[in-house]
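User: My collaborator sent over this chain with a note saying "see what the structure looks like." That's all I know about it. Can you take a look?
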Amino acid sequence: MSHSLYCYFKTDAGDAALLARLRTLQSALLTRTGVAGRLLRRRDDAGTWMEVYEGISDADVFRLVWLEASAECGLAALSRHEEWFQPLD
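Assistant: Without extra context I'll predict from the sequence alone. Here is the result:
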């Protein structure tokens, strides 16, 4: 079964340093898990950003790698909200 992680958080809309850390995180996740991430921001609130990871085969393993890589990229203190989804059968 495939899972998807949607993780949203608040930030300053023009935070270039955070954007660079998130791109480094997503590069690390692609290398370690084969899952490519996307970054989005709310249309009506440029300070709300979202990480999207889809096609995750093992949610528990991916989450551990995501948390580990987040800490390595200096994102551990960022207050992020995780939402996990799976397809309806």
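A starting point for your reply to your collaborator: The first helix runs from residue 16 to 33.
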